Amino acid sequence: xxxxxxxxxxxxxxxxxxxxxxxxxxxxxxxxxxxxxxxxxxxxxxxxxxxxxxxxxxxxxxxxxxxxxxxxxxxxxxxxxxxxxxxxxxxxxxxxxxxxxxxxxxxxxxxxxxxxxxxxxxxxxxxxxxxxxxxxxxxxxxxxxxxxxxxxxxxxxxxxxxxxxxxxxxxxxxxxxxxxxxxxxxxxxxxxxxxxxxxxxxxxxxxxxxxxxxxxxxxxxxxxxxxxxxxxxxxxxxxxxxxxxxxxxxxxxxxxxxxxxxxxxxxxxxxxxxxxxxxxxxxxxxxxxxxxxxxxxxxxxxxxxxxxxxxxxxxxxxxxxxxxxxxxxxxxxxxxxxxxxxxxxxxxxxxxxxxxxxxxxxxxxxxxxxxxxxxxxxxxxxxxxxxxxxxxxxxxxxxxxxxxxxxxxxxxxxxxxxxxxxxxxxxxxxxxxxxxxxxxxxxxxxxxxxxxxxxxxxxxxxxxxxxxxxxxxxxxxxxxxxxxxxxxxxxxxxxxxxxxxxxxxxxxxxxxxxxxxxxxxxxxxxxxxxxxxxxxxxxxxxxxxxxxxxxxxxxxxxxxxxxxxxxxxxxxxxxxxxxxxxxxxxxxxxxxxxxxxxxxxxxxxxxxxxxxxxxxxxxxxxxxxxxxxxxxxxxxxxxxxxxxxxxxxxxxxxxxxxxxxxxxxxxxxxxxxxxxxxxxxxxxxxxxxxxxxxxxxxxxxxxxxxxxxxxxxxxxxxxxxxxxxxxxxxxxxxxxxxxxxxxxxxxxxxxxxxxxxxxxxxxxxxxxxxxxxxxxxxxxxxxxxxxxxxxxxxxxxxxxxxxxxxxxxxxxxxx
Length: 815
Fold this sequence. Notes:
Layout: H1 2-11, E1 16-19, E2 25-27, H2 34-37, E3 38-41, E4 44-47, E5 51-53, E6 60-62, E7 69-74, E8 85-88, E9 91-93, E10 102-105, E11 113-123, E12 128-140, E13 147-150, E14 153-155, E15 170-172, E16 179-185, E17 196-199, E18 208-209, H3 210-213, E19 219-222, E20 231-242, E21 247-259, E22 269-270, E23 277-281, E24 286-287, E25 295-296, E26 306-311, E27 319-322, E28 325-329, E29 332-334, H4 335-339, E30 343-346, E31 356-365, E32 375-382, E33 390-394, E34 397-400, E35 404-406, E36 413-416, E37 425-431, E38 435-439, E39 442-443, E40 446-447, H5 449-453, E41 457-461, E42 468-476, E43 481-491, E44 499-503, E45 506-509, E46 513-515, E47 521-524, E48 534-538, E49 545-551, E50 562-564, E51 569-573, E52 576-578, H6 579-583, E53 587-591, E54 600-609, E55 621-628, E56 636-637, E57 644-648, E58 653-654, E59 662-663, E60 673-682, E61 693-696, E62 706-708, H7 709-713, E63 717-720, E64 731-740, E65 746-756, E66 764-767, E67 785-788
Parallel strand pairs: 4-12, 14-21, 23-32, 34-43, 45-55, 57-65
Antiparallel strand pairs: 1-2, 3-6, 5-10, 7-9, 7-11, 8-10, 11-12, 13-15, 16-18, 16-20, 17-19, 20-21, 22-25, 24-30, 26-29, 26-31, 27-28, 27-30, 31-32, 33-36, 35-41, 37-40, 37-42, 38-39, 38-41, 42-43, 44-47, 46-53, 48-52, 48-54, 49-51, 49-53, 50-51, 54-55, 56-59, 58-63, 60-62, 60-64, 61-63, 64-65, ...
């Protein structure tokens, strides 16, 4: 029970998401996926009366990452789970081996299937995930090999004694020369037999030789006071060992008892003396009580009847829980749990201005497995009355056996009222099965919120061997009344160390310092003063963060303290501190590590101890710190990027990431944004003019001044040279820009373009011809014959040639 309590304490900080079709809830997760952890849950097939190992490769496949912790716990809070068999051990690691986990079938003919409730706890560096799940078990009815005869015993009369268990009843077949056979009853650890007992003269206190067992005159005696069903069963196990004592074979079986004076078992039925409905106030956890829900059965102990929810509520309708673990919805419970006020309904967290009616469907199962017809149970959720008293906090009470504690300790119970809190009274209307309520030292069942806040309302446990007590309170302001359930968990008396009652961890940004509040880290000890609980960090210590004590007052011993002039406080690094330091707001964590681009995890392992002599020290716990990145680093030039390119005259040329690429530690490179702050200009200091522009590759007529790295990567941005002839001279063009990440951090840069001339046009010829008189002379000028080339403006001498000269008789010559 103490283990379950500590587990409950560790889970109280975990949020829950929507339930699946079985009514189970899954822990909210930000990064870890259920499918990535619980890879396969194929169920198992177990031979009748025998055991089977759970195969970690084919049956239940769990994926874990190095450094993470993962374990699976078998849940025992479902009465309909593990009825025909048993999964062991109760807790095992997720990386269990092929022979580590066993399901044993105990030899019952019904039911033929089982559903084992488990939950998986996965502790990663960044978060903790709880995954409740069911493992399906199918019983394969094959003949036993060691037990070859199993006939019923017979009881002739009620309160009578049966014939002996001899070889006419049980027969075991094996090689008696090579093996040893032993058998025993499992009655001591089982609810069977229900209506009688074995009369064995003390012979069955341990395993017996199989042959001796059938000769020991062991009989069944019917002891039931009322008329019982006509059948009962005795659970047994037989084992075969070799000469060295090694277990070779094990078979479970049920020995049937026929009670001739008994009657055929009848199915249970709901008791319509109960209302089959409940009314609850919005947001108020409310106990299901026997006057709301009850069942009856002619043959069974009423406390042992099981209510099974056959149609669970949806997430929007709330859920049914046990006060033993209020974080896990349940699908079945014993009728005795109703009497002990251990079953409660938690309304949905969704607000509503109108009355809502939800319907559950139940069936009742008796101790022999007979099932009633389904029946409906109505839940009426009333909207919150803004003027009615409100329970603003209800975490329940935790105390040790025989101890007492105020109900307001650590703000377990808080009441408010909008208009007349002074008129509110709280009255006990049910519960207190194992303790009393004391107000100012007197037994009282009525108190006020003022009594509660001043700590004079005390629950006193009666010291009985119980693990829980629950109280139903009614609040009234004279006009409005609200009932609610207050759960009390009783811890068995023991010399225990302090209990960690808050360990939520811490979330902060890079290089940030943040106080560690009592809501994040706290411990409690019922036998000691909480303020004196000492926390101690276990080496090795963190390399990226430090724990500090900070205070404004000068310390008594200033030698180990430093004065922080900027904040005007004294501070020192610590590995030990008291609970009082946390409650006084003196404890801080400071991240000191390097720049982190993703969320990183830090942690310190610690123990707590009380002030006893010698102190009781706890086991190790882990306080987890999530350090969130801050994008405060500007983009940087990607290594190998040239920031230059050569462009041919008149040729539209795209930029590529080889010539223009930046990278950023905290942002996607593709999202980096460039802004042109100086358009392309000719760097000729004598003629610094605009020279071309940056344009869209697909639309060269569209000039751009902003673009992204993604556009560069996909060749969407180009340089468009000016529409002028360069002649024979290359030009150096440059534009300046800023590059900015998504957080607004920016860097500035310049890009250089070498613009090369291209000789791609023939010279322009002027040839007008001229007129000359016979035997005359004409001086040619450039107006009549000229050749120019824009690529060779500096060249003045041109070669003129006549590729096919034509001569005429008596022609002259040109001078």
